[in-house]
Amino acid sequence: MSVPSSHSDHSGWRAAAACAGMPPQVVFARRPADAEPALRACARCPVARECEETVDPAHTWFDGVSAGRLWHNGRPVDPSRRNRAHAGGGTSGGGQHGGTPAPLRRAA
């Protein structure tokens, strides 16, 4: 049986994290565009595994970046949705259901 380690045992990996020193609004961002610097840092982070094990985003309802993924309420944000949101996303004039808008009619 293993005993959970104390908070102080984790300070070493946090200092080695690629996101160390980034502003909290980047690391704990909810919007994909705001999280991009932290997500890029995760790609080269030597302690990504320790980050995910310690943060345990799925069980803590975490919001922000952990181990290379953006999380909202403990669920990973789908990377394809993240990329669409970063690229502007949304609909292109077709209304919220994505259809083609009906042409406007002039009153007679």
Automatic annotation (TrEMBL):
It holds the Pfam family Whib. Residues 87-98 have a biased composition (Gly residues). It comes from the Bacteria. Residues 18-76 form the 4Fe-4S Wbl-type domain. Residues 68-108 are annotated as: Disordered. InterPro entries: 4FE4S_WBL (IPR034768). This is 4Fe-4S Wbl-type domain-containing protein. The lineage of its organism: Bacteria, Bacillati, Actinomycetota, Actinomycetes, Kitasatosporales.
